[in-house]
User: Which sequence fits this backbone?
């Protein structure tokens, strides 16, 4: 799970339950600052912590396992990039950044 997903998930669940961060924290037996840090994306909760907070808001969490497919062509450039010095990698990133900035203006 992505950290942003956890923060948004908790925030939405709390709001749908009509609870403040303080109320949710009290019901989940934790500090309001814990809820706030998770919702702000400042900390990534463990699965059990997230499940406990969501349960306190009246929701359950479940997971599914699905295979992701990576296009093999995406990886074709990896050996070339790994062979570069750190300085050359930074130069290439800067060139790509300039290129992308220029294309956004068009």
Assistant:
């Amino acid at each position: 799970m992505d950290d942003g997903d956890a923060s948004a998930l908790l925030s939405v669940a709390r709001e749908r339950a009509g609870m403040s961060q303080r109320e949710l924290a009290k019901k989940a037996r934790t500090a309001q600052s814990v809820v706030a840090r998770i919702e702000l994306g400042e900390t990534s909760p463990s699965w059990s912590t997230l499940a406990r907070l969501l349960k306190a808001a009246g929701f359950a969490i479940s997971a599914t396992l699905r295979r992701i497919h990576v296009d093999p062509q995406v990886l074709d450039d990896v050996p070339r990039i790994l062979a570069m010095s750190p300085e050359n990698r930074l130069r290439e990133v800067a060139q790509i950044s300039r290129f992308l900035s220029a294309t956004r203006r068009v």
Q: What stands out?
A: The mean pLDDT is 91. The chain has two domains: 3-56, 72-105. Helices lie at 3-16, 21-28, 32-39, 47-56, 78-83, 86-105. The two ends are 36 Å apart (CA to CA).
